[in-house]
Specification:
The two termini are 29 Å apart. The chain has 10 helices and 13 strands. Helices cover 26% and strands 21% of the residues. The chain is of the alpha/beta class. It has a single domain (4-22, 36-354), classed as Alpha/Beta hydrolase fold, catalytic domain (Rossmann fold, 3-Layer(aba) Sandwich). The longest helix is centred in the middle third of the chain and has 19 residues, at 129-147. The strands form 2 sheets. It has a 7-stranded parallel sheet, sandwiched between helices. It has helices spanning 29-32, 85-91, 129-147, 159-169, 189-200, 211-220, 234-241, 243-249, 279-282, 304-314; strands at residues 4-6, 40-44, 71-74, 99-104, 117-121, 152-157, 175-181, 251-258, 262-265, 268-270, 288-293, 333-342, 348-354.
Length: 355
């Protein structure tokens, strides 16, 4: 294993970041937030934040409801259709909702007219929001034509929520509900770091230079406005400026994971985050939201409570109440950079220690 270390000052001075998931099950309450004053915190890039579920999902014991319309599950950056195993297994249990399989973004899929649960399969897992929104539109149109449905419900993880928001924003949409699970609606500094590491020639995934990959990372970067008045991330900035029309075109819900040390700013550590995306980045003004504790960015989309709440939302049922906020959640704290260690095998980067 080769580890490359670079000084923290080589990174963008205004970057924001987001960390790597700890293990479950959660420890006792009094130990859950225990970090020593100089304990290092490791962070994982978005490239490895959308992978298959790390733990076997505990599905809801009850059967799912019959869906009112087709559901399309939309994966995130460097994700895959297979990332939705928990949702697929529960929704199609005992054939209650027929499985429609994967729908490609190139318009070539043979769509099952009886299907109710579909999974998006983008042509590449790391394309830009603009490219993916176009493929998403083609997939939704295929599903509606084949099934006779006037609309679909979208359930999206991470960057998939941004792809879905742009599709809504462009108009002529066929969507009733959009659920965004762990979506960086205000970006994440981890994408800024990936771009910077690429400039420095450090190991990163995918291991090649590509215009679409770089654009996807810019689409995920932290939403900031520079000294010249220009937004750092024009795509997300525009989506947030136009949020009202997206809210008029579909009913929206955000779901965020919590309890994992997360960088919400370049030097601020919060436990209100999933290890990659902070709660603050997920939430949107005037949009219904749900918080799930003790899950990381990958696990949140497979938790039984999240499945229940998501499906209640898209079937217009009362939403189960969120669990109470744990007692004694530490306030957000400033941290100081100590070093950056790039592990090309795990692509994990040790970036900061708490003050």
């Amino acid at each position: 294993m080769q580890v490359t270390q670079i000084p923290p000052q080589m990174l963008h001075p205004n970057s924001q970041a987001s960390p790597a998931p700890p293990a479950s099950p959660a420890p006792p309450v009094e130990d859950r937030f225990a970090l020593s004053g100089d304990e290092p915190v490791a962070f994982t890039f978005p490239s490895f934040a959308s992978q298959a579920d790390e733990l076997p999902a505990k599905l809801p014991e009850e059967n799912p409801p019959v869906l009112d319309r087709p559901v399309l599950l939309v994966h995130g950056y460097n994700g895959a259709a297979e990332n939705w195993q928990a949702f697929e297994d529960w929704l199609t249990r005992d054939g209650i909702n027929p499985n429609g399989g994967n729908v490609k973004g190139d318009g070539t899929s043979q769509v099952n007219p009886e299907g109710r649960v579909f999974k998006m399969q983008f042509q590449r897992p790391y394309n830009s929001v603009v490219t993916n929104a176009s493929e998403l539109r083609a997939a939704v149109n295929q599903i509606c034509r084949a099934t006779g449905a006037a609309e679909v419900d979208l359930i999206a993880h991470s960057k998939g929520g941004l792809d879905s928001r742009l599709y809504l924003d462009q108009g002529d949409e066929k969507v009733r509900h959009l659920v965004m699970i762990g979506t960086p609606n205000h970006g994440t500094v981890m994408a800024d770091l990936e771009l910077r590491f690429r400039e420095l020639g450090l190991p990163i995934f995918p291991p090649f230079q590509d215009t679409e990959v770089n654009q996807a990372l810019r689409d995920l970067s932290a939403d900031r406005v520079g000294a010249d008045g220009r937004p750092n991330n024009p795509v997300v900035h525009s989506l947030n400026e136009n949020l009202q029309r997206q809210k008029e075109r579909a009913e929206l819900l955000t779901v965020d994971g919590n309890g994992v040390p997360t960088l919400s700013d370049s030097t601020v550590l919060t436990f209100r985050g999933d290890g990659v995306i902070s709660r603050r980045s997920v939430e949107l003004p005037g949009v219904e939201r749900s918080h799930k504790w003790w899950v990381n960015h990958t696990q949140v989309k497979a938790h039984a409570d999240v499945l229940r709440k998501t499906i209640a939302f898209i079937t217009d049922q009362p939403l189960p109440a969120d669990e109470p906020e744990p007692p004694d959640v530490p306030a957000d704290q400033e941290i100081i950079p100590i070093k950056i260690s790039a592990d090309p095998e795990k692509l994990e980067y040790l970036i900061a220690a708490r003050k």
